[in-house]
């Protein structure tokens, strides 16, 4: 988790204070975390800063509850650990649907809003295959690729991150899909109830889509596609970026091909993804058997964080949010099994 942020579950008073602090004017995610570090708690911060009144939180909470939703506050057991590790992790998320999906490994599928029919079919194929492999599929509920991925992943699990408030239907064409995800999957929003989906909110939404995920699959992204923002944020967050290539003569793939040129993983089918991030429901078993039971959960986290590209051990510790000693024990077990390769600069990768 973000350095300095308390990792224990907040008591009711502290949790309420975090909601007030997060919903206050001029308190963005980074400022929120800095305030907790500076003051020591949200309660202390609220005592010193001009924060939103408690009545406003009660009003939003009541509206969310009537819609069948709840707040997920950073520090809550349901808050996704991968997202919590980011320095700009959203302090609070509104959630409608199945919060258990946040505890499962995820891969994002994103791409063009005005996507071709072939690209939408491909997005559906990837989403279905990822679901069968044990991954929840995340995306941003936009037209085109996002919508195709969500639809295909409904049977196995999908999370849609909204730019506006969780009560806002956007885009209108996806109203029925949004309702179905609320019923069968999970809707998430960082924005307060009633907030319209303004342009500046979409890049913030994209960082959550990638932050929830072990990797991001990009399909049919043009030169100025919003999907490129998601891909770049994913790379900054230490996530894998997978890109389906296209003809260099097709402008719809100009952004996709540029990502591959810059080092993203050329992706032809699901095997190109699984060869890097593995299958979450099967690959952890050999390590758990050979390592001590006490580190079984850590082994699963380490396997999800590792890939074929060398990763610094310090980065693994940060991503997994466990002690360096626990990570070292899992790495040793993997090395003894011949599944881990060590590199210069205290970096490791799966063989």
The separation of the N and C termini measures 28 Å
The major pleated sheet works out as:
9 strands, mixed
Describe the strand arrangement of the main beta sheet, using strand numbers: 1-2-6-5-4-3-7-8-9
The rounded Rg comes to 20 Å
What does this structure look like?
By secondary structure, this protein is of the alpha/beta class. Among the domains are: 100-276, Rossmann fold; 284-350, Winged helix-like DNA-binding domain superfamily/Winged helix DNA-binding domain (Arc Repressor Mutant, subunit A), CATH 1.10.10. 45% of the residues lie in helices and 15% in strands. It has a nine-stranded mixed sheet with strand order 1-2-6-5-4-3-7-8-9, sandwiched between helices. A three-stranded antiparallel sheet has the order 10-12-11. The chain is globular, with a radius of gyration of 20 Å. The model is unreliable at 1-7 and 281-295 (pLDDT under 50).
Nutshell version of this structure?
The protein is 45% helix and 15% strand.
Topology:
Elements: H1 12-22, H2 29-39, H3 42-48, H4 54-66, E1 69-73, H5 81-84, E2 92-97, E3 106-111, H6 117-133, E4 136-139, H7 145-153, E5 158-162, H8 175-184, E6 186-189, H9 201-211, E7 215-219, H10 226-236, E8 240-243, H11 254-261, E9 265-266, H12 270-277, H13 284-290, H14 296-305, E10 311-312, H15 313-320, H16 324-336, E11 340-343, E12 347-350
Parallel strand pairs: 3-4, 3-7, 4-5, 5-6, 7-8, 8-9
Antiparallel strand pairs: 1-2, 2-6, 10-12, 11-12
Helix pairs in contact: 1-3, 6-7, 9-10, 13-14, 14-15
């Amino acid at each position: 988790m973000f350095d300095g942020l308390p990792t224990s579950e907040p008591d009711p008073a502290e949790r309420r204070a975090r909601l007030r602090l997060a919903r206050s004017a001029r308190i963005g995610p980074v400022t929120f975390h800095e305030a907790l570090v500076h003051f020591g708690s949200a309660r202390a911060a609220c005592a010193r800063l001009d924060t939103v009144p408690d009545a406003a939180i009660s009003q939003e909470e009541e509206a969310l509850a009537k819609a069948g939703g709840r707040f997920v506050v950073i520090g809550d057991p349901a808050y996704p650990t991968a997202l919590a590790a980011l320095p700009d992790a959203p302090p609070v998320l509104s959630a409608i649907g199945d919060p258990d999906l946040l505890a499962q490994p995820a891969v994002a599928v994103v791409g063009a809003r005005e996507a071709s029919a072939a690209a939408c079919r491909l997005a559906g194929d990837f989403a279905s295959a990822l679901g069968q492999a044990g991954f929840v599929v995340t995306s941003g509920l936009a037209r085109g690729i996002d919508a195709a991925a969500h639809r295909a992943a409904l049977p196995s699990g999908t999370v849609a991150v909204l730019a506006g408030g969780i009560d806002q239907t956007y885009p209108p064409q996806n109203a029925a899909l949004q309702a179905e995800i609320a019923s069968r999957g999970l809707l998430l929003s960082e924005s307060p109830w009633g907030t319209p989906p303004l342009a500046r909110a979409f890049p913030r939404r994209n960082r959550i889509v990638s932050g929830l995920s072990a990797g991001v699959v990009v399909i049919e992204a043009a030169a100025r596609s919003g999907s490129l923002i998601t891909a770049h944020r994913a790379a900054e967050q230490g996530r894998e970026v997978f890109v389906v290539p296209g003809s260099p003569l097709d402008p719809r793939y100009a952004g996709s091909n540029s990502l591959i040129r810059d080092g993203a993983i050329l992706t032809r089918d699901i095997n190109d993804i699984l060869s890097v991030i593995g299958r979450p429901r099967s690959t952890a078993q050999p390590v758990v058997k050979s390592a001590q039971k006490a580190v079984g959960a850590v082994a699963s986290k380490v396997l999800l964080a590792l890939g074929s590209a060398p990763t610094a051990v310090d980065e693994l510790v940060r991503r997994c949010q466990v002690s360096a000693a626990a990570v070292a024990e899992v790495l040793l077990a993997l090395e003894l099994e011949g599944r881990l390769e060590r590199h210069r600069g205290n970096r490791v990768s799966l063989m």
